[in-house]
């Protein structure tokens, strides 16, 4: 594992532990890696069709959690269409670090959670 990867991933992972829920949640989405159980839950506030605030709450390995945080930071200011257009192969370029092949599945969980953002219905109303 190269030093740049390790530093960037650990830094993002630490930032993720400081996230709080958006003030107004309009959309939420979730995904789970069926192989290992890593899960990412995302909450966002969209105004005018663009994400103005987003937080992810990942549970899993350091790589999946960190990449979810990096993708959420990238998503601010983007539309849901822009998120849908992002391909898994684009994740390393988007987050600014090469992901080792054995961590490919880890990096995809966060993107799939963002792609699943839908109008948020509070759980107590379900």
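Sequence proposed for the structure above (126 residues):
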């Amino acid at each position: 594992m190269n030093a740049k990867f390790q530093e960037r991933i650990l830094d993002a992972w630490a930032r993720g532990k400081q996230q709080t829920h958006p003030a107004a949640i309009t959309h939420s989405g979730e995904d789970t890696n069926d192989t290992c159980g890593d899960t990412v839950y995302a909450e966002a506030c969209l105004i005018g069709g663009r994400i103005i605030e987003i937080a992810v709450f990942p549970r899993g390995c350091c790589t999946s959690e960190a990449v979810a945080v990096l993708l959420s930071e990238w998503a601010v200011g983007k539309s849901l269409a822009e998120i849908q257009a992002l391909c898994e192969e684009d994740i390393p370029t988007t987050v600014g670090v090469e992901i080792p092949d054995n961590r490919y599945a880890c990096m995809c969980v966060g993107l799939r959670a963002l792609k699943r953002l839908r109008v948020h219905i509070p759980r107590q109303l379900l």
